[in-house]
Amino acid sequence: MRPFRICLLLASVSALLFFSGCESHKPADASDTPAPQYRVFDTVVAHVEPVHDALTLAARIQANPTTVVHIYPPISGRVLALKVLPGQEVTKGQVVGMLQSTDLQQARSDYEKAKIEAARSDLQLNRARDLLQHEVMAQKDFDDLNAVDQAAHAELSRSLQTLHILGYKETDTTDLVAIRSPIPGVVLDVNTASGELQRSLDNATSIATIANISDVWVVADLYPRDVQQVRRGQPAEVHVNGYPDAVFHGVVDNISDAVDPQSLTLKVRVVLPNPHHQLKPQMYATVAVTNQSRKAIVVPATAVIRDGVSTYIYVQTGENKYDRRDVRVGEAHDTSVEITGGLNEGDHVVSTGAELLRGSGSE
Q1: What is the mean pLDDT of residues 210-220?
Q2: CB 76 within 8 A of CB 88
Q3: N or C end of the chain, less CB within 10 A?
Q4: Domain 55-65+214-289 is classified in which CATH homologous superfamily?
Q5: Is it true that domain 43-52+294-357 has CATH number 2.40.420.20?
Q6: According to CATH, what is the number of the domain 66-101+181-194+203-212?
Q7: What dihedral do alpha carbons 99, 105, 108, 113 form, nearest 10°?
Q8: Which residue spans of the chain are classified as CATH 1.10.287.470?
Q9: Could you tell me if 343 and 314 are in contact, meaning their C-beta atoms sit under 8 angstroms apart?
Q10: 291 or 11, which is more confident?
């Protein structure tokens, strides 16, 4: 039995050594691997830099009033055809409508009568001149005929000029009047339709309104309290609602001398070139006028925390040590904020993760 016990003991020791070796080669648990370290807080150094104050004014785009034309019919008649629509571009001399008028026939008839009367007066004056040379006619009678002849030619000139004003020659025979645009531009509105009667220049409503918008006015409202911040020749940036990614650059061309009684503001005018007509009259815009630069401590906007009662930031004072600082803020810019009190130049300000420090005991 003793040899058997020895063999059993050796077998047990061998098994124990075998399992111990397997245990020593077992892979380490993933929980024993140290976790990667992530950077939770970022800091920036507070520094003084130049900043620019900008005054933003509400504005609207307008056509230059000196390039806006209200087209009235030159003569009374009925509108037979209207050849333009609002928003359409027209050239100088382009026909915008056709008018049928009996007044045109009357003007042509007046011209023909004046031409006949002038020819008759010329004939009588020539006869009187022969009689005067032969001392058959008195000088006074000749002078009277000469005055009548001059009056007849004056009436002929007037009637001919009337035809030319209407755009017709003395040889034309039609009763249709072409209404033409006197300037190149864009049709802003149309106030008539085919078949309507027009009463010439005494009509209060124009047929169409055309404006040349190669240059446009941006007219902004300036409150009297800000009048010292704007001056003529000052650079200005114009942002138009229809083009959010575009910035148009100009200068202040004029500031009105009187306050508008309706809006109680002064009108600031910025003139912008508009060669492609992308800026339309009555579009809304804003005008940003940049004032003189100044220096201030600036920090990222993400570093400032507002809780409704106070405004504060966190400043790093040591490794993993942060102190809360109550601050006074000034103007806000695109991605930064001015600090006017409570922070010194050179302080390390938490710019990312400042919200995580609230209630952590760092304050």
Answers
A1: 94
A2: no
A3: N
A4: Efflux pump adaptor protein, beta barrel domain (2.40.30.170)
A5: yes
A6: 2.40.50.100
A7: -160
A8: 102-174
A9: no
A10: 291
Angstrom CA distances, 135 to 143, 144, 149, stand at: 14, 16, 21
Q: Which long-range contacts (CB under 8 A, 24 or more apart) does 4-9 make?
A: none
How does 284-298 read in b/e, with b if 16+ C-beta sit within 10 Å? ebebebeeeeeeebb
pLDDT tens sequence across 312-346: 888 988 888 888 888 988 877 778 888 888 888 88
Any idea of the CA torsion for 91, 93, 98, 101, to the nearest 10 degrees? 160
What's this model's pTM, rounded to 2 decimal places?
0.58
Q: Express each pLDDT in 226-246 by its tens digit.
A: 888 898 998 999 999 889 889
Region 133-145 average pLDDT: 87
What's the average model confidence in pLDDT over 77-93? 89
User: 294 - beta bridge partners?
Assistant: 51
What residues contact residue 286 under an 8 Å CB cut-off, 6+ apart?
56, 57, 58, 59, 220, 238, 239
Distance in angstroms (rounded) separating the CA atoms of residues 288 and 55: 5
Helices 102-133 and 139-165, packing angle to 10 deg: 160
**97: amino acid identity, one letter:** G
